[in-house]
Design a protein that fits this description.
This protein has about 475 residues and is of the alpha/beta class. The protein has helices at about 10-15, 20-25, 40-50, 65-80, 100-110, 125-130, 135-150, 165-170, 185-195, 215-235, 265-270, 285-295, 330-345, 360-370, 390-400, 415-420, 425-445, 455-485; strands at about 1-5, 30-35, 55-60, 85-90, 115-120, 165, 200-205, 275-280, 295-300, 320-325, 350-355, 405-410, 445-455.
């Protein structure tokens, strides 16, 4: 049980007394009170209450005020450090009813949730009957609706401070990077959603008494909306924010972009049915399955920089795929030289299909104009990227590495992947395609390149030597025939 307390001298004792006895009977429970550098006697009240209670109580005092969010960080870290299973967040000012703690713990105990939020909005009319001011009620509803829309969630309330968490889930969240003030509560909800943790809401009563609200309404609304929008921009790959880099949040990024013009549909169109295909790089299982449905034979090479490109002769393949891999190489020239050495001959050679981000995309230009060049978890400015390309620089790279570029095309932005596949996002892709016809260097999200390796000097010299030997043999046979005649 974790109680955040700040200048709660008049309420803390009663809050601790109201914790139901069944909590201590059913769970091995410790109560942790952290006084966030109060100017009154909150800490002394906590110590006095600890002496008369029969269950374990720890009372800590922050010498420096950490703020509402900073105080929570300490409590959650305490729970992680001491190996607790669950932690319940309770306010020391009496705003939330401790009697509801068993209701919050039940979904955790029954393994139905990783986080449980007490909601004052689940009971129709309950918030107003409990004394919530109209302006706070309306603000709560409006902000929650906006956040649900942006995060594609369906919570009844984002702004309750009465919560229970599975400590294992908290340990997986980067909450240490969250705000130290009141919108910490919003940031940790977003992190739970990004990590695909299970959230359950339970109804709680609303009580507004004489407690002092320390939340500045307009500033709080601004902060939570900025955090929510920032998390969406992080998810779209427009920018990177360490707060929202939650383990497990990138799994959906590997899904194929089908149903609209994209790098995957262009690749599938460019590979003929029945071709023998080699995928270079990781993460191509879904695409390989689609190619197999086209009758292709697909091999994968989980290649990493520094390894040999392949010991076998790669000329046996009809198509080699290098999708979103080139930009991750520190020395793409050496890689392409090695690849050409494995594929180039005077005879038939495989086609190479390549996709990479276009660093001249107009959104990146606008960001640079505004002073932002922020790498993200995916997209053109991927955190793993080492080289960035434009149409001209990509063509130059392949030309100078001995490839004949046969096609260079623009790929529109994957709006359906970012915003959901539907008529509006399909229309956005079509508009983007029209803009590509006007200025592909400006409006292409990615570049699609087809190239064929030209014969190396070794291949040409070997071909010249073998050709010379064949011709010399023919000349010898012709001269022998003339002498016999």
């Amino acid at each position: 049980m974790f109680v955040v307390a700040y200048e709660a001298e008049s309420t803390l004792d009663a809050v601790l007394d109201r914790i139901p006895g069944r909590v201590f009977e059913e769970y091995d429970t410790e109560v942790l009170v952290i006084d966030d550098s109060s100017r009154d006697r909150t800490f002394e009240v906590g110590l006095r209450t600890r002496e008369r209670l029969r269950h374990p109580v720890t009372v800590l005092f922050n010498p420096d005020n950490q703020g509402y969010g900073g105080n929570q960080k300490l409590g959650y870290h305490y729970a992680i450090r001491h190996g607790f299973d669950y932690v319940v967040l309770l306010h020391g000012d009496g705003q939330y009813a401790p009697e509801c703690i068993p209701d919050l713990l039940a979904p955790l105990r029954e393994d139905r949730a990783d986080a449980v939020f007490g909601s004052r909005m689940l009971t129709k009319g309950g918030a107003r009957r409990g004394g919530m001011p109209l302006y706070k009620f309306m603000g709560n509803r409006i902000l929650t609706a906006a956040q649900n829309r942006l995060l594609r969630s369906s919570l009844s309330e984002f702004h309750s401070g009465f919560r229970a968490y599975r400590v294992e889930a908290l340990a997986a969240l980067p909450f240490a990077y969250d705000s130290n003030v009141f919108h910490f509560d919003t940031e940790i909800i977003i992190q739970l959603m990004l990590g695909r943790f299970r959230i359950v809401e339970v109804p709680i009563p609303t009580f507004y008494g004489d407690e002092i609200s320390r939340v500045v309404g307009l500033r709080y609304a601004r902060d939570i909306m900025l955090a929510t929008v920032w998390s969406r921009l992080h998810g779209l790959g427009i920018l990177y924010d360490r707060r929202f880099d939650v383990a497990g949040s990138g799994a959906q990024h590997d899904a194929l972009k089908l149903g609209y013009r994209s790098s995957h549909t262009m690749t599938l169109e460019a590979v003929p049915a029945g071709a023998r295909v080699l995928q270079i790089g990781n993460g191509g299982a879904a695409l390989a399955a689609e190619l197999t449905r086209q009758g292709c034979t697909v091999d994968s090479l989980a290649w990493e920089e520094g390894q040999e490109v392949g010991a076998e002769d790669l000329r046996a393949y009809d198509v080699i795929l290098l999708l979103d891999q080139l930009e991750r190489l520190a020395a793409p020239e050496r890689f392409l030289d090695a690849l050409r050495g494995k594929t180039a001959s005077v005879g038939p050679r495989p086609r190479l299909l390549v996709t990479t981000g276009n660093v001249a995309f107009f959104i990146l230009r606008l960001q640079s104009l505004l002073g932002n060049f922020n790498y993200s978890k995916r997209g053109i400015l991927d955190l793993r990227n080492r080289r960035l390309y434009t149409f001209a620089s990509l063509r130059k790279l392949f030309t100078q590495c001995g490839f004949k570029v046969t096609r260079l095309a623009g790929i529109p932005a994957p709006f359906p992947k970012a915003l959901g596949l539907g008529p509006v996002t399909r229309a956005m892709v079509r508009v983007n395609q029209w803009l590509l016809a006007l200025a592909r260097g400006l409006f292409s999200y990615q570049v699609f390149l087809e190239a064929t390796p030209l014969p190396t000097l070794d291949a040409l010299l070997d071909h010249s030597i073998s050709g010379s030997q064949e011709r010399a043999e023919r000349v010898k046979q012709e001269e022998s025939a003339e002498l016999k005649a």
